[in-house]
## 1
Amino acid sequence: MSSPVSYKLDGNIGVISVNFPPVNALSQAVRAGIVDAIATAQGDSSEAVMIICEGRTFIAGADITEFGKPIQSPWLPEMLADVENSSKIVVAAIHGTALGGGLETALSAHYRCALPSAKIGLPEVKLGLLPGAGGTQRTPRLAGVKAALDLMTSGAPVAASMARDAGLVDKIIDDDLYSGAIAWTRELLAEGAPVRKSSEQSVPEFDADIFDEYRAMLKKRARGQIAPLHIVSCVEAATNKTFQEGMALEREMFMACMESPQSAAMRHLFFAERQAAKVDGIGKDTPLRPIKTVGVIGGGTMGGGIAMCFANAGISVTMIEISDDALARGLSIIDKNYGGSVKRGKLSQDKAAACRALISGSTDYASLAECDLVIEAVFEDPELKKRIFRQLDEVCKPGAIMATNTSYQDVDAIAAATSRPQDVIGTHFFSPAHIMKLLEVVRGASTADDVLATVMKLAKTIRKIPVVSGVCYGFIGNRMLNPYGKTVQLLLLEGATPLQVDTAMEEWGMAMGPLRVFDLAGLDVGYKARQALSDDEKGDPKTYQVPDVLVEMGRTGQKSGAGFYEYDDRGRPVADQVVQNVIEEVAKDLGVERRKISDDEIVERLISALVNEGRKILDEGIAQRSSDIDVVYIYGYGFPVSRGGPMFYADSQRNA
Ligand code: T1G
C-alpha cells in the first residue's frame, strides 16, 4: 500500500506532503512516512524542508483509532525529535485545523505559516488526555505560560491571527498556501534564518502564582477530571526543569491519562457523537432538501431560542405568533438573548445585529408559504399541535418539511393531521434552545428518508448534535428522566433529603442534582400532565404525592421562589424544613418506613433507573444504538463527560 506521505524536491525545497483522509491523522504510516522523508531530506540537495498536507486540513492530531492498542513505532515524540533535529530549517504550512499532535508537529518545525482561515489547538483535554508529544513543553516556550495553559486546559482552537500574536505561528499566507509557503521558505533561506528549535527557547516571564490559580479554577470548572491538573504540572515543569526532564514528566502523565477510565469515557464520546449523526440504512448520498428559509411557530422561550439557532447559522426565520402583542414579546426575548450574548462576549455587536436582522415576525400563517422548513414550538397541547399542523398543511409549499418541537407527544398522531405525513418529523430542542447542543430528531413511522437526512445535516449546520429517536412518550431523554424522577421521590420518602440527593449526584458528577432540575423546570409541568391521567395511569402515589402537595401549596419551583428548595434573592437553593415536613407527612400517610440512606445507594439507584430504561429503549428500537443514548444524556441532561454516558458507565462498571 503506498505511503500516505510523499516527498519531492521543488527547486531547493524538500516538500513533505501528507495525504491521509479524512483529517491527515498521525497514523503509524503517516509517522513512518514523515520520519523517512525527513531522513531523505538530510542527504539530498534540498536547502530547507516544508511540511504541508493535502485535503481539507493540516494534521488534525494523533490517530484516535489507534488509542488503547499497542503503540507502533515510530512513536510521535521520536518523529517530532527527527523533525526538530533536522540540519536544515523545517517550515510547517498550515490550513484547516492543526490540532493536538498536528500542532505539536508544527511546533517541532522551526517556522510556521498558516492561511488566515486556519485554526490551531490542543484539544487533548476533551479526550481526557494532555498533549503527549511535547506540546506541554514547547507551547509555553513559544507562547508563554498563560497562553499555553489557556490553550491546553480549554482545548479550544484559536484563529491563525491569534496564534501569530501568541508566537505560535510566524507568518500568515494570504493567497495560495503552497506557493506562498514555498516563497516564504525561500525568503527565510535568503535571510539566513537559522535552525530554530522551540525546545531550546526559554519560557518567557510569568506570574509565579499562575499555577495555583489555575489549579483552583480547574478544580471547579473541570471537577474530578485529572488531565487538566496534569497539564498544569507539565507546564510548570517546563518552567523549572530541562526540556528532557519536562518531556519525561509529560510522557508519564500522558500515559496515566491514557490509561484512565476518564479518557476511555471521553474517547468513547468522541466517536459516539459522530456515530449519532449517522442513520443506519440511509446513505451519505441521499439527496437533501434545500433549507434556505425557516418558519417558527410560537414566540415563547423555546420558539425564540430555536429562531436564534437558525439566524445564527445565517438562515432567515419568520416567527409566527397569535397576536401583535405576543409577537412583540417573542421578539423582545430574542433581543434580550442577543444582548446577553454580546454582554458576555459570546457575540460581537455586529454579528448579533446581523443575526437578529434575519428574524422577522408575523401573525399570518400565509407568510410561511415559501418556507422550506417550519418548526412548531407551542406548549404541550396535542390538540393545539394538530390544529397547527392542519393549518400548515394548507399553507406550506409542496416539499416543505414540517417539524414539531414537542418533548413528549406522539409525532405520528401529529403527522396524521396532515395530508403529507412523510414530510413531518420531530425536532426536540432543549432549553435554552440557542445554547443546549442536543437535538433529538424524532423519526415518525411515515417520515421520508430524505426528510430525516435533511434534518440530520441541518442539525450540524446550526451546530447541534443530533440523535435519532423513534416515537414513544418522551422519546429517549425525557423517557429515561421519568423512572429517574420516580426513584428520586422514593428515596425522599425512604429517608434521603433533597439536599442529600442533589449533593450526592453532583459530587458524582451530574451538572445539577435532580431536585434542583425539577425546581428549575417547574413542578407544575408534571402536576398539570398528571391531572389528565387516571389514578391507574398515574402509577404509584409514592412517586408523585410530594410534588403534588408542594404545587398545591403554591410551590411550583424556582420561578415561584420555592419548590423542593426555597430560593434566596440571588436564586440560590436553600433547604427548607417545610418541605421536609411534607415528605415525612406523605411517607407516614403512605406507610413508608424511613431509614438512613447512603450516598452510594442514591447514586446506584438513580443511575440504574436511567440505564434500565435505556435498555428498554434500545430493545424497542427507539434508539439506534447504546452510544446514542450516552450522547443524549451527556448533551441534554448534564451527565458527566468523564463517565461517558449512562450506558457506557454501566458497561464499564460491569467489566471493572
Ligand atoms: N483520529 C482519527 N480519526 C479522526 C480524528 C483523529 N484525530 N479526527 C477526526 N477523525 C475522523 C472522525 O472520526 C470522522 O470519521 C472524520 O474524521 C471527520 O471528523 C499526541 C494524543 C478535525 C475539527 O482531538 O476535532 O493528538 O465518522 O466528523 O466536523 O498530543 O474531527 O467520517 O468515519 O469530526 O469537519 C487530538 C479531533 C487527538 C481532533 C474535523 N486531536 N477531531 O471536524 O469532521 S489526540 C483531536 C476533530 C492527540 C497528541 C494527542 C474534528 C475536526 P467518520 P468530523 P469535522
## 2
Amino acid sequence: MYNAFLTKFIRRIALKGTVLYEIIDNVAVLTVDNPPVNPLSDGVRTGLYESITKAESDDSVKGVVLTGNGRAFIAGADISEFGGNVEGVSLNEVFSKLEFCSKPVVAAINGIALGGGLETALCCNYRIAANSAFVGLPEVNLGLLPGGGGTQRLPRLAGPGEALKMMLTGGHVPAKKALNMGIIDDISDNVVEDSIKFVLDKAENEENHPKVRDLNDKMIEARGNDKILLEAQAMAAKSRKGQFAPGQIIKCVEAAINLDDFDEGLKKEGELFLECLLHPQREAMIHIFFGERAASKISDVPKDTPTKDIKKAGIIGSGTMGGGIAMCFANAGIPVHIIDQDEENLKRGVSVIEKNYDFMVNRGRLSAEQKDAVFGLVSSSLDYADISDCDIVIEAVYENLELKHDIFKTLDEIVKPDAILASNTSGLDIDSIAQVTKRPELIVGTHFFSPANIMRLLEVVRGEETSNETLATIMAIGKKLKKAAVVSLNAPGFIGNRMLFGYTAQANMLLLEGALPHQIDQALESFGLNMGPFRMMDLVGLDLGWRARKLGGKESPLHAKIGDELCEQNRFGQKNSKGYYNYTEGSRAPNAAPENESLYEKISQENGFNRRDISDEEIIDRCMLALINEGADILSEGVAQRAVDIDVVYINGYGFPIWRGGPMHHANAMGLDKVVEKLNKYHESTGNDVYKPSELLVKLAEKGERLGDAPNKDDRKEKLGFEMSSVANNF
Ligand code: 3H9
C-alpha cells in the first residue's frame, strides 16, 4: 500500500509541466505552466484532465477559461515524447474531456497556439485570442499530421481549402487573420479578463454551447468538389516533394469532407497519424527540429554569457551578398548602413534591395506601409565614418585576403572599439584577418548563403581568439535574423564547402567514368536533393576554379578536367547559357547538351577511363559516401561540434532533403557498419582515397555506436592546416 502510494507520488513529481487552478468570479481559470512554451507534456495532460474534472464537480463554478503562462498558450504536443513510451493520460482523453465538459469552456489564447495547442483550443466551445497571438498546425514540418482532431475540426471552421493550406504550409496565422478565417471568435487586449466575462455571460444566457465537431455545413458544401483536394495535391507536390505526411493530411481532410460521422473521421485521422509516427521521415525531421536548437548552443560557452545589444549594423559592400545581409537586419527591425567605395555600385545595390521589397509587396507578402518601414531602416554612403557608431559591421566584399586585411585595418581604426567586426568570407582564414586588428576577440566569421535574405543557414566561424561574448552575441543575432546558425572552427572550407568539395568532385569523377550530367542530377534529385550537382555547378559558374588555376599556372586536377575543358570551349554555365547543359535566354531550365558528349569521351579516354554504364544506386552511394566520410572527419577534428550541426548546415545551405535528416543522420539510419562496408568497397574499386573510411566511422561501427558529438579536445584528430589554396578554388 505504502509502496504503491510512493510509486504514484514519485511518478507524479517526475511529470513534466503542470496546470494551475484558480477560481475567479465563479470561473475556473486553468493556466498551463510548462516553460518556456507550454507543450502538452505528461504533467500538463494530467493537470488538464484533473482540473476539468474538478471544475465540473464544483457547483459554484459556472464556466472554465483555459490559458497559458508566459509568452505561449500551448506550443503543441511535447515533441520529445514522440518515438518513446508515452505515460499517463493521453492527449485524446484530454481533448474528449474538454469537448464534453458539462460547463462552457473558453480558450483564452494569450500567445502562440500551435499543433496540439490549437487543437486544444478547437475542443473548447469558444476561442478568444490576444492581438499578438498566432495559431497554426505546423505538424507537417515534423513529418506528422495534426493528430489531435485538427484535420477534422479546422476544416469545419476555416473550410477545407483554407485548412489544407494551413496544414500543408505549417504556417503561423496571426490573430486578426484567424478571426477573419473563422478560427477564433474574438480578439482582446485583456484576453483572460475578457474571457472570464464572456464565459459568465454565456453560462448565464445560453443553454447550449457550440462544439466544432457539430459544424458540418462547410463539409457538406465541399462534397463532390474535387478541385479542393486536387489543388492541395498540386501544392504538396510542388512545395513538399518526397514528403510522406502531406498526402496523409489530404486523406484526412478527404475523410472529413466525405464521412457523415465525425468520430469515423477522427478514427481515420488516428490511423493515418500512426503511419506518420512510425515513418522514418518523422524521426529525421524531429532530429532536425531539436538539432537546430542544439546547434545554437556552443558546448564550451556558458549559457549565461552576456551578449551585446545590437542596435545598429554596418555592411561593407553593396553587392548581392551585402544587400541580402542588409535586408536580414532591416527585416529584424535593426537599422543598417551600407558602405561601398563606388557610388554607382552603391546606387545599384540599394535599388536591388528596394526592388526585392517591391516584389514582396506585389506578391502580397508585405504591405506598402511595411515596405516603407523596413526599407526606411536601410541607409547608405561612401564614408566609413558613417558606421563608426555601429555595434556590428559585416564585411561582404569579394574573396581577396589582402583586400579584407585593408578593410579590417580601416574598420579597426574607425568603428567604436567594442563593436564586433565580422567577415562574410566563405573560405578565407578568419585568424589571419583578426591579426591585422587590435581586437581579435571581436573578430568572427559570419558566412551567409546566397541569397542571404532567403537562405536560412548562417555558418559562424570561430577564430582562435574570438571571445565567448562575441560568439554568444552572434548566435543571439542569428536567432533574431531567423537564421539556422551553426558554429564552425576556422578551417579550410569551414563545414559546408569542405563537404561540398568532395561531393562535387565525386560527381565529376562519375562523369569521367561514364555517367552523363543529367543522369547524375536526376539520380540525386530523386534521392531528394533540390538540385543535382551539374545544375548547381552551371548555376555557380564553371569558370571560378578554372580561372584561379590558370592564374596560378596550375594543372587541372583529375575531377576538374572536363569542367576546365568546357571553359576552354567558352562554356561557363548559366552565365553564358551553356555549360554542362544548354539554356535558352532568360530561362534557368536545363536542356541536354549532346554536343558535349564527344568531349566527355575524349577526356575519359585521355585519362585512362573506359566509359561504362553506371547505375543510379552507385551514383547516389558514391556522392553520399563522399559527404558522410568528409563529415566524419570534420567531426573528429572538432571543426563541427556535433553530427547534427553538419546536418543543419547541409539542409539549410545545400538543398539536402529535410526528410532524410541530413547526411550524418542518413549515415546513422543506414547503420555505420554498412557505411564502412560500402566505403571499403568503393575504395577498392576506384582506388580513390575519398572512400578510405574515416577513423571515426570505423571506430563507431566497431562499437555499434552512432555519429553524435565531436570527441573531446584530447581525442581529436588533428585539424587540417589552413591552406589558402582554398577549397573553393578546387571546384
Ligand atoms: C503536435 O502537436 C502533434 C499533435 O497534432 C497531435 C498529437 C497526437 N515540444 O524554438 P524555441 C522547446 S506536434 C517540446 O527556441 P522560440 C524547444 O526545443 C507539435 N519542446 O523558442 C526549446 O528547448 P531548448 C506541433 C518544445 O520562441 C524551447 O522549447 N508544434 C516544443 O524561438 C524554446 O523553443 C510545433 O511544431 C514542443 N512542442 O519559438 C511547434 N516547442 O530551450 C514547435 C518548443 O531546450 N515549436 N520546444 O532548446 C516551435 O515552432 C517554436 O519552438 C515556437 C517558439 C514557435 C513555439
